[in-house]
Amino acid sequence: MKEQIEKIKITAKEEVKNALDLQSLDEVRVKYLGKKGELTGVLRGMGAISQEERPIIGGLVNTAKEEIENAIKEKEEELKVIELNKKLENEKIDITLPSVKVKRGSKHPINRIIEELEDLFVSMGYDVVDGPELETDEYCFERLNLPKGHPARDMQDTFYVTTEYLLRTQTSAVQARVMMDNKEKTPIRVICPGKTYRRDDDATHSHQFGQIEGLVIDEGISLAHLKGTLEVFVKHMLGADSKLRFRPSYFPFTEPSYEVDVSCFKCGGKGCNLCKQTGWIEILGSGMVHPNVLKMNGYDPEKYSGFAFGTGLDRLAMFKYGITDIRLLYANDVRFLNQFDRKD
Ligand code: DAH
Questions:
Q1: DSSP state letter for 339
Q2: What φ, ψ does residue 262 adopt, rounded to 5°?
Q3: Which atom of ligand 1 approaches the CA of 312 most closely?
Q4: CA-310 nearest atom, ligand 1
Q5: What is the Å distance from ligand 1's center to 310 Cα?
Q6: DSSP 268-279
Q7: Which residues contact 236 (CB under 8 A, 6 or more apart)?
Q8: Cβ–Cβ < 8 Å for 285, 311
Q9: Is the CB of 131 under 6 A from ligand 1?
Q10: Does residue 319 have its Cβ closer than 6 Å to ligand 1?
Q11: CA-to-CA distance for 21 and 158, rounded, in angstroms?
Q12: Ligand 1 center to 171 CA (angstroms)
């Protein structure tokens, strides 16, 4: 029996030594020390030996067990190091490989126009304000001198949600909101870019479009302030050589009212297909705030005067980037949008 134990010990240690990886090492452990292992088998056979010999054999089995266990432990450490090195070798990062390309979005042309205008007007001391797109008839029309039944309401094909609520047809609605919100009735200098809606849909009109509104109210504001401001605005957006032309017009919330044309930036004023051979392109609506509008929104027209203007952001984007169909701005086609990358 002693020899048998000795033999098991030697072969076990030999197999431990030859184990190639952690898995085969574990197989050796099960083979000799497991429940059904060879050494355990010897202990099971102890019943057949004499009382005196039992502790001796038991002792031998335990020492053999310990020795095998120690050999396994040692080998295990060795194999772990080898496996770790192998893993590190395989996971080595090649820093010369090209990186995975991250797809970047680009800023929408309308947002570019808005940001450019915000920078310009903020630099002139204006605040940027917001208003609801779901507006009331009161703010979109009535407080802007457009009572119910006023013929000028027909100029704007309105999406009504209920008889009182509508999708705002013009950012001019924010004029009334800003005046009403200003409880102390202090001077105002704001721009309001935002979405507007009308029942249109063709190459130059979309049912959703963008506008930007400007409103200045203070003591002693005159037409000269309006002209100067619009010159800065248009030249900044469409080129320093642009000329402006003020044409008398009609808007219910301004008196006098003007439509402003800019000299055609494609032909320089000579006449082409863009300006329909006139040399001019209509760019915005403007005027001096109507005394009724001041009064209706809590400002004393004897003390205060002001000017306002409004223009389409889509038109500006189309002119600036040479876009011929307004619907492209809302189609979310990445082939179109990618052209407006971050480079400029
Ligand atoms: N709200 C007008 C429109 O949608 C544009 C406009 C004209 C705005 C004159 C103004 C203004 O502030 O003074 O056609």
A1: T
A2: -120, 145
A3: 4
A4: 8
A5: 4
A6: TTS--TTTTTSS
A7: 116, 120
A8: yes
A9: no
A10: no
A11: 79
A12: 8
Ligand 1 atom closest to the CA of 214, numbered from 1: 12
CA distance 245 to 161: 38
Task: Report the residue count for the chain.
Answer: 344
Residue 309: half-sphere exposure toward Cβ, Cα within 13 Å: 24
Q: Atom 8 (ligand 1): residue with closest C-alpha? A: 310
Pocket of ligand 1 contains residue 310 by CB under 6 Å: yes
Digit-by-digit pLDDT tens for the chain (344 residues) are 788 888 998 999 999 999 999 999 999 999 998 888 888 887 777 778 888 888 888 888 889 899 999 999 999 999 999 989 988 888 888 889 888 888 878 889 999 999 999 999 999 999 999 999 999 999 999 999 999 988 888 777 899 999 999 999 999 999 999 999 999 999 999 999 999 999 877 766 788 899 999 999 999 999 999 999 999 999 999 999 999 999 999 999 999 999 999 999 888 889 988 889 999 999 999 999 999 999 999 999 999 999 999 999 998 998 888 888 888 898 889 889 888 875 55
* Closest to 211 (Cα-Cα) out of 339, 68, 79, 110: 110
- Using CA atoms, how far apart are residues 141 and 147, in angstroms rounded to an integer? 7
CA of 67 to the centre of ligand 1 (A): 96
Tokens 């099960």 locate to 30
C-beta 306 within 6 A of ligand 1: no
Q: Report whether residue 308 contacts ligand 1, using a CB cutoff of 6 Å.
A: yes
Q: Whose CA is nearest to atom 4 of ligand 1?
A: 170
Indicate which residue's Cα is closest to atom 3 of ligand 1. Answer: 170
Residue 292 in tokens: 């009724």
Element at 312 (helix H, strand E): strand 305-312
Q: Is any atom of ligand 1 closer than 6 Å to the C-beta of 172? A: yes
d(CA 106, CA 157): 33
Residue type for position 252: P
